[in-house]
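From: lab user (bench 3)
To: helpdesk
Subject: output format question, protein + zinc ion

Hello, I'm new to running complex predictions and I'm not sure whether the block I got back is the full result or only part of it. Here's what I submitted:
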Amino acid sequence: MEKQKILINGERLKQTLELFADFGRTENNGVTRLAFSDEDIRVRKYFSSLCRELGMTVTQDDMGNMYATLQGMENDKPPVVIGSHLDSVEKGGRFDGVLGVVTGLEVVRTMVENGITPKVPVVVANITNEEGARFEPSMMASGVISGRFDKSEMLKSTDKNGISFGEALKNSGFEGKEENRLKEAAAFLELHIEQGPVLESESLAIGVVECVVGMVCYEIEVTGDSNHAGTTPMPLRKDALFAANHLISELRQKMRQLNDRLVYTIGRMNVSPNIHTVIPNKVVFTLESRHQDTETIKQVEEIIQTLPESSGKEKCEVKATKLWDRDTVWFDENLVRSLEQSSKMIGYPYKRMVSGAGHDAQFISTYIPSAMVFVPSVNGKSHAEDELTSWEDCEKGVNVVLQTVLDLTIN
Ligand SMILES: [Zn+2]
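Helpdesk reply: Thanks, we reran it on our side. This is the complete output you should expect:
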């Protein structure tokens, strides 16, 4: 049976995104809207007012998460939730996070103007401090409501001026009750910009996200011996940096053979004593690697754990310590299929893909069936003022979410 296609208003979506970008817009058309800054508090009020205009009720929980609810026919049933975050990094873009919240708003607007009363409530959520740009860690509030982070610890997190998250929350006027936290729900849907180059490079508008990839991070310490850079002959040196260099080449050689979707990064390196006339006696670097299959991550760990205890001609000591790891989070297969169906039905080319970055949905998925949709990032850019997703692609992404929400709430 041919279903009637209901689509969102693309022009209104664009206008709404631009209006939201006015809260903290930077000189170069980016956005700075740190959690519970003036800009964040103002955009929260604005978001509230738009939701109330639609007849929604707005509540907050004890982490300042906001939930705007459109009543359904059976309001004791678990709702369908659409959400993301309104906070940004310093000099971030106009799309990261806010797109997922505005998606919810536009979905509800479309339902209301089409006279649709959903079977169950539809909730639009703004999750506090996703970026962790002002108060670490990132995904703080979704971490608390999903039981991953300890709330009292989080309240103590301070910004660079010594203001704690707890104080900022209290002063914001957005501190609500713990009983208002997002509990049971039929679905949590998050539309987000890809923040990578894959969709653009394949000319696809929609990515249906199956999982957030697991990762592991090691710290590798190479110890040599410091001495005078002029008087010590090369064969008599224990140069920790040359040894680290050998080691890194070897690691790269081995890891590139594992799987072509494996990514690995040496993002931090400290050289001691870091003086140009002294042979380095210590190099400490991190090796972080991400892949969706536990087996591949295990192979990475095997490579790291079987590194030789002393490296290269320099005979430096090598020690690897695991800092932390995170398992792959798989999204709800039924929702993933439903999002694929929606893309197919509207006629948008899509692919299933993985997320290399973390998102609130990954924590929320531990207790609510969740899934995500990605739309392309121009040049793969994000967390920058020139972060960009075309209006057409934003519109397509929201239409896919709308279709899935309609499937979940009216059929
Ligand atoms: Zn984000």
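A quick orientation on your result: The domain at 10-212+328-410 is CATH 3.40.630.10 (Aminopeptidase). Let us know if anything else is unclear.
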